[in-house]
Amino acid sequence: MIKNFAEVLQKAKDQETKKVAVAVAQDKPVLEAIRDAKEQGIADAILVGEKSQIEAIAAEIGMDLSNFEIVDEKDSVKAALKAVELVSSGKADMLMKGLIDTANFLRAVLNKEVGLRTGKLMSHVGVFQLNNFDRLLFLTDAAFNMYPELKDKVDIVKNAVTVAQAVGVEKPKVAPICAVEVVNPSMQATVDASILSKMNDRGQIKGCFIDGPLALDNALSEEAAAHKGVTGPVAGRADILLMPNIEAGNIMYKTLTYTTECKSGALLVGTSAPVVLTSRNDSHETKMYSIALAALVATQLKKK
């Protein structure tokens, strides 16, 4: 099982090289990530955006553009649509957001003619390498679905399982995170957690173990779980943390990002091809890890 991003990068290098289409590519951290991904043999790229600006940034960061195809498009909305079209037509395997606001980027992703719709729910998956854990943690959904109902959580789990399996976690352990580890009819998240667990028991959600509700300590710490008498296949060994809503997910995501010495990557799944959707504040290293994750997920989707 892959336990860190060094192994994620190696797995991405070992597979057939994937190609990423970058929407509005004239962004320094994005181009630094693309440069590094190319140099490490993780992914090739098609850069869609204003060519003169791309060339200026490339010169600044020592990036050899002769290795890349550039599609010159000054209009950011048209550039995003073109990048999406490259993916939906099969000329690229995955999509990456550049210097464009998220709303216009997602409009292109959802475009009825060239977009990446599948009819499934889209969701965001963050992947974290933390010093205190012997495994990667998958966090969902911290950025896209605000207040998911039970049916939404089923799809969110399935999307996260796809990412975890792509990384090499054959049967990930999913913890529906709640404030408590018992079912309380007044707390909808605990009710949803118990139903998800039963659906998993009956084979309605495959490819993973789901057990909950679990409070965060009982999901991550075997010692805490044992102290509280919480048992099961997930207790203290969770791979995927299913957060109850966007507030909890976003707070958790940013707490890990800003208070720990973590490494992370993130992407949007539930689309016909993975979408690298990182924050403007993310480092080029985080963006490169996200490209590597997307390359693995692109391979995983072709197996389905």
UniProtKB/TrEMBL annotation:
Task: Select a single GO molecular function from the record's annotations and give it.
Answer: phosphate butyryltransferase activity
Keyword set, alphabetical order? Acyltransferase, Transferase
Where is the Phosphate acetyl/butaryl transferase domain positioned along the sequence? 7-76, 78-295
Top-level division of the source organism's lineage: Bacteria
Q: Which GO terms describe its biological process?
A: butyrate metabolic process
**EC number(s) given by UniProt:** 2.3.1.19
PANTHER family, A to Z: PHOSPHATE ACETYLTRANSFERASE (PTHR43356:SF2)
This protein's name: Phosphate butyryltransferase
Q: Which organism is it from?
A: Clostridium aciditolerans
